Amino acid sequence: MTNSPHSDTTTDGIRIYAAAEYLAPDNLPPEYPLSDGHKRQFVFRYKITMTNVGSSTARLLTRHWVIVDGEGRREEVRGRGVVGEFPKLAAGESHSYVSFCPLSTAWGTMEGTYGFEHDDGKRFQVKIGRFFLVPTAPPLRLESPSR
Question: Theoretical Cys-Cys bridge with 22: which of 91, 115, 135, 140, CB 3.0 to 4.6 Å?
Fold first, then answer.
């Protein structure tokens, strides 16, 4: 068993790799809310890479996140697409995006599902394995992974 804070999960031919890093107040791009431990606001940037390792083209339609903070408070987020996009992945193709998650504790977890649809109209759920929002996680590589 690995000790990584990241996750790497494959469901029905769609592989989801998820990783996060803490954004310290002095390392925040202007579009992110401020991380401030004194005000109990911690911001984590996460990167998702989805790869179609199956043989059928599939398009992402929906997302469902379950976010749990360090005190056990649970929040669910549902919506269409990811960061305004609905990636369509042919066999062997990948798509990555970066977003963020603010927490009121210094650590937490995220996991969930993506709703996908094959070209024939068949819909299916893809698991996003639990990954950890922790200040000690290694920095993200924001370029595409060579996997």
Answer: 135
